[in-house]
Amino acid sequence: MKSNRFIITLIGIGLLGSANTVFAGEPIEPIAPVKEINLAQVELGKKLFFDPRLSKSGFISCNSCHNLSMGGTDNLKTSIGHNWNQGPINAPTVLNSSMSIAQFWDGRATDLQEQAGGPIANPGEMALTHEIAIDVLASIPQYVTEFKQVFSTNTINIEQVTGAIAEFEKTLVTPNSRFDQWLLGNKDAITADEHAGYKLFKDSGCIACHYGPAVGGTSFQKMGIVEAYKTTNPARGLSGVTGKEADHFKFKVPTLRNIEMTYPYFHDGETETLAEAVDVMGRLQLARNYTKTENAQIVAFLKTLTGEQPSFVLPILPPSTDKTPRPKPFE
Questions:
Q1: 165-188 CB burial, b ≥16 within 10 A, e <16
Q2: Residues 102 and 81 in one domain
Q3: Lowest CB count within 10 Å: 33, 127, 147, 281, which one?
Q4: List 29, 125, 167, 194, catalytic entry
Q5: pLDDT tens digits, residue range 119-143?
Q6: What end-to-end distance do the CA atoms of the chain give, in Å?
Q7: By residue range, what is the domain housing residue 138?
Q8: Is 37 helix (H, G, I), strand (E, B) or coil?
């Protein structure tokens, strides 16, 4: 049970309550403040998120692929894993990921906690095992004390580790974008071109998939409805999880929040620019060939979705001891 003294609820009741009439009827909603966060778990999860000792090399942390200084991603086509292993798919942003229907492009993790355990034990990513990860943490007295304080137990297990990381990740939301300010009544927050881009975005049908607070993340859709999407990336999408042929090449619709920061685009990371991504999605999903002006207007609108980035003091990680399993970066 969570201790009440560690729980904080941050709800902008006055702000959102008075603004409901402003954005009523719009397919996109402002990002609300975080609700019901266990602060003790958040602080522990923050350390774990940045701790490279949860990897075999002692070099890779969660932040390596989901860099919070770079929009919650690594800006690479596919991420770099243990021993310079090339990842199979583009790393989605961790920002606003708590708003997604599931985690990973194929939805194989139901929530943030389940997702957090995957990379640690993946031989191509952090390449450790859950057992060794627990041994590492259990060998560090400061971690043992903090786990005991947070979870009221004398033992550490992987569920506590992934739970704390997930609780920290829930705080990684990006409110107060210029578009949110516009939704909340500040009509000067976006320009005429940006507003025109939003109208095009709606009128073209983009909002059929990109809606809600995260402007995406709420459904799985086939990539390439009007035209086939050509790629050498072997990812199968949702069908790899469900085994259903009907789900082949269906991927979780990505959030468009902070999209100008999370290049390159799509599951294969092959699309370098936002303008190119708009062109591809228009043609392949909507049978729409945007003019240069229309494309620029939509791109301008998408850039208004960049919100306030998470900002905090970097955690100081407790030192290893003589009993701490040593990293093996070259094995």
A1: bbbbbbbbbbbebbbbbbbbeeee
A2: yes
A3: 33
A4: 125
A5: 999 999 999 999 999 999 999 999 9
A6: 41
A7: 4-170
A8: strand
